[in-house]
């Protein structure tokens, strides 16, 4: 069984914000496969589906970003999942908008959702897809930036990065080792 987690904030207010690109990637994966991420448990919305013979859980924590680890730990314990069966998708200001980067482990890089996930899992050793959102180029605060919507001129790049993240997820859940998926998508 594999578990793919997209980080974000619940509610209409945050739906199209930069911080919700993890949710957007989960939504893209669900849409492609005609899945519905509507079951409510584990402090999140989830779907339990099958992809090419593999059981797959899609999870969108509803705890708000800074408490994402609570939801991830709850689903990990319930299904007794190993860390190598997890893939966490989230926004990254250190990558330009439109770029993605896959890693097998790492620190939080100042991302509070990842920090909380590390705290609840007790390790930095979980697979992740970071989707670039760029940095503010004005005097905008980080909070206002990540909770702001993407401007129209980058919508095409955002859409492509979400699609590429979903492609990487599908490669991983179809049985391709994560190292190979990294090599393919980190170009």
Brief sketch in words of this structure:
The protein is α/β, with parallel strands linked by helices and 187 residues long.
Structure description:
It catalyses: an N-acyl-L-alpha-aminoacyl-tRNA + H2O = an N-acyl-L-amino acid + a tRNA + H(+). One of its GO terms (biological process) is rescue of stalled ribosome. Monomer. This is Peptidyl-tRNA hydrolase. The chain has one domain: Rossmann fold. The chain is 36% helix and 22% strand. The protein has 6 helices and 7 strands; from the N terminus they run E-H-E-E-E-H-E-E-H-E-H-H-H. Helix 1 packs across helix 5. The chain is globular, with a radius of gyration of 15 Å.
Sum up the structure in keywords.
187 residues; alpha/beta; Rossmann fold; seven-stranded mixed beta sheet; 6 helices; cytoplasm; tRNA-binding; Peptidyl-tRNA hydrolase; Pept_tRNA_hydro_sf
CATH architectural category: 3-Layer(aba) Sandwich
**Shape assignment:** globular
Total discrete domains: 1
CATH topology: Rossmann fold
Compute the number of strand runs: 7
**Estimated structural class:** alpha/beta
Radius of gyration: 15 Å
Q: What's the CATH H-level homologous superfamily?
A: Peptidyl-tRNA hydrolase
Unreliable runs: none
Order of helices and strands, N to C? EHEEEHEEHEHHH
Oligomer: single chain
Strand order of the largest sheet: 2-3-4-1-5-7-6
Strand content: 15-25%
Largest sheet: 7 strands, mixed
Topology, element by element:
Elements: E1 2-6, H1 21-33, E2 39-41, E3 44-51, E4 54-61, H2 68-79, E5 86-92, E6 100-103, H3 112-121, E7 127-132, H4 142-146, H5 155-173, H6 178-185
Parallel strand pairs: 1-4, 1-5, 5-7
Antiparallel strand pairs: 2-3, 3-4, 6-7
Helix pairs in contact: 1-5, 2-3, 5-6
């Amino acid at each position: 069984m594999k578990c793919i987690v997209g980080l974000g904030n619940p509610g209409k207010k945050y739906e199209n914000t930069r911080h919700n690109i993890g949710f957007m990637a989960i939504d893209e994966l669900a849409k492609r496969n005609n899945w519905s991420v509507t079951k409510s448990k584990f402090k999140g919305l989830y779907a339990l589906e099958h992809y090419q013979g593999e059981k797959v859980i899609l999870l969108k924590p509803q705890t708000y970003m800074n408490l994402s680890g609570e939801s991830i730990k709850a689903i990990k314990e319930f299904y007794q999942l190993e860390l190598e069966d997890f893939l966490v998708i989230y926004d990254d200001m250190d990558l330009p908008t439109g770029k993605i980067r896959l890693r097998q482990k790492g620190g939080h890089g100042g991302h509070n959702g990842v920090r909380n996930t590390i705290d609840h899992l007790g390790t930095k050793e979980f697979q992740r897809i970071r989707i670039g959102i760029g940095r503010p180029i004005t005097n905008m605060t980080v909070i206002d930036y990540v909770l702001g919507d993407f401007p129209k001129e980058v919508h095409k790049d955002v859409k492509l990065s979400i699609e590429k993240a979903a492609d990487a997820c599908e490669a991983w859940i179809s049985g391709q080792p994560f190292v190979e998926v990294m090599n393919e998508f980190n170009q």
